[in-house]
Amino acid sequence: MIPQSLAFLLTYKCNFLCDHCSVSAGPECREALAADHLRRGIEEAYALPSIRVVVFTGGEPTLYPDLLQAGINLAHEKGFVTRLVTNAWWAKTPEKAYHFLQNLRAAGLDELNVSFDDFHLPYLEAFGGEQNVVNAVRAATALGMTVLVGAVLHPGARIRTSYLRQIFQSAGIQQEVKFLEDFVFPLGRARQKLPAHFYISDPEKREQGACREAGQTLAVLPDGKVLFCCGHIVNSRAQAILTIDSLASGAPLPEIVARMQRNVLYWWLHLEGPEAVYDELGVEKRFQRKCEACFYLGTAYRRKLQALAVRKEEVFARWEGKKVGLPA
Predict the structure, then answer these.
(1) Whose CA is closest to 229, among 310, 287, 291, 280?
(2) Does pLDDT of 11 surpass 80?
(3) Do 51 and 80 contact (CB within 8 A), yes or no?
(4) pLDDT at 96 over 60
(5) 28: burial class by Cβ within 10 Å (0-12, 13-18, 19+)?
(6) Do residues 3 and 50 make contact, with C-beta atoms less than 8 angstroms apart?
(7) CA-to-CA distance for 15 and 229, rounded, in angstroms?
C-alpha cells in the first residue's frame, strides 16, 4: 500500500474553540509548518506516483494565507489535485468569499471542504453565521471547484445533510454539493468537554476489521513529523505509534514511505485492524471507533505494544503465508 494523498496540517491554531475538536485546535495554539518543510514535502511527493491529492488542513489553515497559497501553487504546478479544509470564517459577504477563493483558485485550488455543524455554528456566528457557508459554497461552485460540506453529528443535532441541502436550495445554489456526516470521536477536547451520550458507535461497525485508512493518507504535522494516518490522535500522546519520521530530520519523503512499508504496526492496522492487535496483546477493551482504539494502543497499552516489536518477523511471516501482498 502506497499513500494516495498527502495532508499538511499547516497549524493547530484555529479561531474557533469547538467542543468536539479531536485535535484540540484553538486560538492559543501557535505552531505553524515551516515553509521549507511544506515545499520539500510537495516536491518529494512528486516522486511517489500513487499520491494524487494534496490536502491543506489544520487547525484553520487560512490563518496562514501566504503559506497556504504557496503550498497550493506548488502542488498545482506539480500536477496534484489540491484540497482545502476550512471553517469558512473568511466568507462574511458574497464579495469577500469570492475574492478570497478567486485568489486561491488562481493559485490552483481544486476542492473546497467546509466544516459546518452544531459545534462550529456558535463560533461562526461572530463572522456571519451559516450565511458564511452559503457564501463560500456559492463562490466555490461559481469558480468551478468541487465542494464538500462536512458535519459532525450528535444526538439531537440540527445541522445535518438534510438541513444543509435545504439552506443551499433556499439560496438558489443549483450546482452539485457533496456532503459528509460523521460522529463525535471521544478524543482531544471532546474527551473533556462532551458527555458520554454524544459518542455514538459507528452504525456500520467500521470499528471492527481492517483499517484501510492506515497508510492511505500521509499526514505532515506542524512540527514536520510524518505519520501514516491523518486520524483523530495526531495531536495526542498516542501520536508516536503512527509517526514514521520527520521532514525536519532531512529524510526524503520516498524514504519515509519505504520505512512505513517495513512498519509492522502499519501493516497490522491496515490488514487486520486494531482489534487484532488487542487480541495479540491479550487485552479485552471496548471502543467505539478505530481512532479511539489506536489512542489506547498509544497510551495505556504502549508498553505492551512495544514488547511486540521483537516478534516483528514472526508477524510478517504470518501475513506472507496468507499471500497478502507484502512488499519484498
Answers:
(1) 291
(2) yes
(3) yes
(4) yes
(5) exposed
(6) yes
(7) 25
Cell 500521509 found at: 218
Closest to 84 (Cα-Cα) out of 18, 145, 4, 19: 145
pLDDT tens digits for 71-94?
999 999 999 999 999 999 999 999
Q: What share of the chain is helix, strand, coil (3-state, %, to 5)?
A: 45, 15, 40
Residues pairing with 183 in the sheet: 153
pTM of the predicted structure, to 2 decimals: 0.94
| Among 139, 98, 9, residue whose Cα is nearest residue 61 | 9
Given its phi and psi angles, is residue 44 left (phi above 0), alpha (psi -120 to 50 degrees) or beta? alpha
Name residues whose C-beta falls within 8 Å of residue 276's C-beta, 6 or more positions apart in sequence: 268
Mean pLDDT over 293-301 rounds to 95
Q: Are 27 and 77 in contact (CB under 8 A)?
A: no
Quote the CA–CA distance of 13 and 20 in Å, as a whole number: 15
C-alpha cell at 179: 456532503
